[in-house]
Design brief:
Helix 1 crosses helix 8, helix 3 runs parallel beside helix 4 and helix 4 packs antiparallel against helix 9. A 9-stranded mixed sheet has the order 14-13-12-11-7-10-9-8-15. A 6-stranded parallel sheet has the order 3-2-1-4-5-6, sandwiched between helices. It has 9 helices and 15 strands. The structure holds nicotinamide-adenine-dinucleotide (NAD). The site of nicotinamide-adenine-dinucleotide has 19 residues, from helix 1.
Length: 333
């Protein structure tokens, strides 16, 4: 069986996902949801999507009566993920949602609860959870090849352009760089160490308060402590290009990824040498693996469910609170 997917939000990342899905073996694009009729027309022609599988933001609840669609992939601006996922769940379809799953942990939990109640799966587009060099490091760590893990460094950033875009609008983005790109270091700290943090501290700096308005973070440094005693030191920014590096150090060895989360190829090495898995588009692997998770209850090595995403949102909420108060925040994940 093949997972038949409708994409909601035909923007730049939706375009990338659709293209990558053309190489999928187990997932297929069968439906479209967009507010822009001209985009629907273009995509219909490109991907051979019948009219009856095309919807707009007013009528997509009717997807519940469409037997050609198993799941909807929500790829809209962050603050709109919640409504999209709730309506998809109410229509009885599985939901795949982009990161960040929502703009705070409370909304994220609401999405998890709604999908559970509706009996549908909720998965989040954590494409790195399926990336082979990343998984190789996780395997080596689990087998003790680095010894006891003591330190993680995560650096995540890019220099953002157009000040009018939704990513710099708090209402649609839910924050700034942390929500968009810093989340890779938050999430990466967890899968690279294999632990859940029990505290965070954080400090914010802003060089351009006109471009980065109130509630839109430009640069945040944050630190996390883990139950084993390992610590993480991370940077999230909208003000530097080519900042994409993970570094893990244990008592015996190290692993580094640079780039660590870009669209690829992901380059990595450890104290034992270069990581050599070939590059395959992350979204192709992700959608094939998600088909296995949804259709066959396959368990990924690193979870991609809604509960996993809520943990990142709990940490991000605490990072913002730590910036606001200057105080260390305790976490129980
Ligand atoms: P984008 O602006 O290119 O696309 C967003 C789409 O949503 C557009 O087609 C837009 O028309 C549509 N939309 C619907 N309602 C809207 C509204 N009220 N206001 C504005 N746009 C509206 O953005 P994008 O880069 O495609 O990002 C979309 C989502 O995907 C974000 O949540 C982002 O974090 C996520 N994303 C994930 C990755 C990844 O690697 N996993 C990469 C890029 C983006």
């Amino acid at each position: 069986p093949v997972l038949r997917v409708a994409i909601m939000g035909l923007g730049s990342y939706g375009t990338r996902v659709a293209k990558a899905m053309q190489s999928c073996k187990r997932a297929k694009l069968t439906g479209l949801i967009s507010g822009t009729p001209s985009k629907i027309k273009d995509w219909q022609a490109k991907y051979n999507i019948p009219e009856k599988n095309c919807y707009n933001y007013e009528n997509y609840d009717q997807i519940k009566d469409n037997p050609d669609i198993d799941a909807v992939y929500v790829i809209t601006p962050n603050a709109l993920h919640r409504e999209g996922v709730l309506r998809v769940a109410a229509a009885g379809k599985h939901a795949i949602c982009e990161k960040p799953m929502s703009v705070n942990a409370r909304q994220g939990q609401e999405m998890v609860d709604a999908c559970r109640k509706a009996g549908v799966k909720l998965l989040v587009g954590y494409r790195m959870h399926f990336e082979p060099n990343t998984l190789e490091i996780v395997r080596m760590r689990n087998e003790g090849e680095f010894g006891k893990v003591l330190f993680f460094q995560g650096l995540s950033g890019f220099r953002i352009g157009d000040p009018k875009q939704w990513r710099l609008n708090r209402e649609l983005a839910g924050g700034g760089a942390m929500m968009d790109i810093g989340i890779y270091s938050v999430n990466g700290a967890r899968y690279m160490t294999g632990e859940e943090p029990e505290w965070v501290t954080a400090q914010e700096t802003k060089t351009d308060p006109v471009k980065f308005r109130e509630g839109v973070d430009e640069t945040i440094q944050f630190q996390m402590g883990f139950p084993s005693g390992a610590v993480a030191s991370c940077l999230s920014t909208y003000n530097m290009n080519n900042l994409d590096r993970f570094f893990l150090n244990g008592e015996k060895g190290y692993a580094e990824l640079q780039p660590a989360t870009g669209y690829g190829p992901i380059k990595g090495r450890t104290n034992k040498g270069e990581l050599t898995h070939p590059h395959i588009a992350h979204q192709t692997i992700q959608m094939d693996e998600m088909a296995g998770i949804i259709l066959e209850n396959k368990k990924p090595v690193i979870p991609v469910n809604g509960e996993e995403a809520v943990k990142d949102l709990v940490i991000i909420d605490a990072i913002y609170e730590a910036c606001r108060t200057g105080k260390r925040q305790a976490l129980s994940l």
